[in-house]
């Protein structure tokens, strides 16, 4: 009679071990980004002190287009009618403009590759529910916390761990959607004026916004380091 009891105990022990090890096991890795997508992001610059020169809440339309090596963030501040464009090209040029101002920067990295997180350097931090969605959480280079849907691998949220405290929540994610209209990507004439005539210095009113806009470039730099 002792034998079945022992067998049961062993089965329970085996099942418990399996459950414990499957929840403690690091998943294979985060999903790579699809090569093209359109995402609507709700953005909060949570460091109110650095966001004080501009409204901290924004809506971003992110058009990621890896085959054409370009990336566009169309940024709408809360209750502002004049959207900001942040256009990044693979040659390292970033244009950041609205209807009146423009800022350009040359950086030594191209557009963020689809494998920026999946191809190395991601640290698994465990499961967490955010916005009611069960997520796997990843960190990279002490620079970002990245939440992906545990079921689908789709991005749900990311927090940049820099002074802006920028947090983005993925409200929609459309794989394969491309912004075809080249006029939307084209930097306007006032981006090509004499450098001295428009500010590219670091101490202007939009520094916080510029820092926030440059975060994807910094991510690309961090990705390139692996
Ligand atoms: C934005 O972040 C700030 C600082 O963490 C927080 O107090 C505020 O509630 C957030 N706003 C929204 C709409 O999430
Ligand atoms: C990079 O490419 C963009 C888009 O074609 C162009 O406007 C920009 O002038 C280029 N930058 C450099 C440094 O060649
Ligand atoms: C928030 O911004 C201020 C002003 O730039 C900066 O001094 C501070 O370190 C930032 N806070 C965090 C937590 O990064």
Automatic annotation (TrEMBL):
Keywords assigned by UniProt, alphabetized: Signal
N-terminal signal peptide: 1-20
Domain of life: Eukaryota
Protein name: Uncharacterized protein
